[in-house]
Amino acid sequence: MNYDSLYYPYKSQxxxxxxxxxxxxxxxxxxxxxxxxxxxxGGNAIDAAIAAxxxxxxxxxxxxxxxxxxxxxxxxxxxxxxxxSSGPAPRAISIEELKKKxxxxxxxxxxLTVTIPGTPAAWASLSARFGKLAFKEVLQPAIKYAIExxxxxxxxxxxxxxxxxxxxxxxxxxxxxxxxxxxxxxGRAPKIGEVWKSLDHGRTLESIAETKAESFYRGExxxxxxxxxxxxxxxxxxxxxxxxxxxxxxxxxxxxxxxxVWEIPPNGQGLNTLMALNILQGFEFPEKDSVDTYHxxxxxxxxxxxxxxxxxxxxxxxxxxxxxxxxxxxxYERRTCISENALDPAPGIPPQGGTVYLAAADGEGNMISYxxxxxxxxxxxxxxxxxxxxxxxxxxxFSLDPNNINALIGGKKSYHTxxxxxxxxxxxxxxxxxxxxGFMQPQGHLQVIMNTIDFNLNPQASLDxxxxxxxxGKKVFVEPHFPNHITQALQRKGHHIINSIDEVGFGRGQxxxxxxxxxxxxxxxxxxxxxxxxxx
Length: 536
Description:
Blueprint: E1 17-19, E2 22-26, H1 29-40, H2 45-59, E3 69-76, E4 79-85, H3 95-100, H4 119-130, H5 135-138, H6 140-148, E5 150-151, H7 154-170, H8 177-183, E6 195-196, H9 199-211, H10 214-218, H11 220-231, H12 238-242, E7 247-249, E8 252-256, E9 259-263, H13 270-280, H14 291-311, H15 322-325, H16 328-335, E10 356-362, E11 367-373, E12 383-384, E13 389-390, E14 421-425, E15 428-436, H17 441-453, H18 459-464, E16 468-470, E17 475-478, H19 484-492, E18 496-499, E19 508-514, E20 521-525, E21 532-535
Parallel strand pairs: 17-18
Antiparallel strand pairs: 1-20, 2-10, 2-21, 3-4, 3-11, 4-7, 5-6, 8-9, 9-14, 10-11, 12-13, 14-15, 15-19, 16-17, 19-20
Helix pairs in contact: 1-2, 2-4, 2-6, 6-9, 13-14, 13-16, 13-17
């Protein structure tokens, strides 16, 4: 790929990293190094990704954990594969049940938000199908860091402290006590450079490693989850865990200016990115930093997001097919909605018919885009005593309106925010990319892909570039280093622009591109995290 621009805002002066034999890009240095360790032991990119992912549950628990969900897109054996390891709601929960208890909406945290975790199953499935090393060996670095501890990096410590202050203020009830027992030191959040460890977390990882995750779904760990849920009125049961298995899926794509952009199909929101790219395909963008470019990007994302929230759900419950949402006819109709002024978006009518992200590549041509999350920060606030398992609060995305496409039903998967991305050209892999951060993710994917394809920015510059985040209606948040003259011009077009640094998350991404002619790997890591690229 040709990178004509060396675009670096003041926020980061890092350059792209190049390597030949292997590369792992994550938001935490220790996790990236764990992945690299697997490559040097003779493992492949899949082994490296699993090792890094398991480490991230230890070295970045503010964003993910053993009790979360995961997705992956990987290129191996000259073919693309997709893994959906998100879990559904427990069978026993229902709208009727919650309304009897006086709930009008699902709360932000607590027992009611817990859905079946898919992360351990993702590790085991990836390892069994594509890994080269023994599963026990791949999880060893994570086990070691959990048992022996590690010193906190700056951004991790900041996020930990913010979560602690919030949880101390809002968590009431005995069900939250294990969170404080697990994630505090002497009743406070650990500080920058201070060593934190969790023997319980380490023993749980050992059990997962030894049983290839069977203990989590059909063994001793499942029993412990079941017992704590029963004690505190939760709905997740060992029977829910026992019947869970991840799904291998066909990734979906659109062709954007000669490149194929790949996402996981619903229940994930990656479809939003593809719909927006389809809309933008009909425009030309001669320069990056122009009001016309940003205006059309924002408007296209508004339309795609609005359609996604109307139509995306567990595919068993969707009333509109994915291929119809990606049709050229629908893209054309939505493109005509974009004018010179900001719009208040409404859904179109299609034709009928706190997350961690990592990327890894090896010298054999294998590449993987992987993402896992507990949803909001540490998740539900529910930690299973004696295990270190922090359970996700993914159930928050369900609706208690029975007419909503994401209405709560036991056994149903929610609209899912975490999405891995992948780029190919002429049936050859360019590489994995991703931007974590809730509903920022499809918006981050769009901006990173356009930075790469339309504006020829290298991986690091693509990630460094200032971002915008549409927040509904005409409200758009921008980073402090977003060009001021464009902010003013967007406001004149009717956008409500808000400059923000602390209140809104603009995502944290990783990119690895493989140069088609040489096979050289070219990576970037986000300056908004304690990011690191390990390579050789």
